[in-house]
């Protein structure tokens, strides 16, 4: 996954996100760890916000540490993220996913 405007960090993040199976979610911190950039949760969020591979990199499967959806989901807002997750069988209640049930491990 290389493109002239994609940094090595972002490529690592996008690769990690593609590992999340349908019907599961991961947290920003989890993606930071999976991508080899422990502690870079905020930077993961920034990279996902400008994901040039939407459709092949399922950034809708990434939520915050409490399971909350992204209020500024870059690809249609929180309602779009909710619809995408629910289409994969993930229950979203009050803008939140139950990490005990749906977190990728």
Brief descriptors of the model:
105 residues, mainly alpha, two-stranded parallel sheet, two-stranded antiparallel sheet, 5 helices, 39% helix, globular
Can you walk me through this structure?
This protein is globular. The protein has 5 helices and 4 strands, in the order αβααβαββα. The relative contact order is 0.19. The chain is mostly helical and 105 residues long. The protein is 39% helix and 8% strand.
In short, what is this structure?
This protein is mostly helical and 105 residues long. Helices cover 39% and strands 8% of the residues. The two termini are 24 Å apart.
Biggest pleated-sheet summary: 2 strands, parallel
Shape: globular
Helix content: 25-40%
Please tell me the overall pLDDT.
95
Topology:
Blueprint: H1 8-17, E1 26-27, H2 28-34, H3 41-49, E2 62-63, H4 77-87, E3 92-93, E4 96-97, H5 99-102
Parallel strand pairs: 1-2
Antiparallel strand pairs: 3-4
Helix pairs in contact: 2-3
């Amino acid at each position: 996954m290389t493109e002239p405007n994609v940094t090595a960090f972002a490529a690592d993040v996008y690769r990690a996100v593609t590992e999340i199976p349908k019907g599961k979610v991961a947290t920003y911190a989890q993606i930071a760890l999976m991508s080899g950039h422990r502690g870079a949760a905020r930077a993961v969020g920034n990279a996902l916000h400008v994901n040039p591979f939407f459709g092949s990199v399922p950034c809708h499967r990434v939520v915050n540490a409490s399971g909350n959806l992204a209020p500024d989901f870059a690809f249609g807002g929180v309602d779009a993220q909710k619809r995408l997750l629910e289409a994969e069988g993930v229950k979203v209640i009050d803008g939140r996913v139950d990490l005990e049930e749906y977190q990728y491990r």
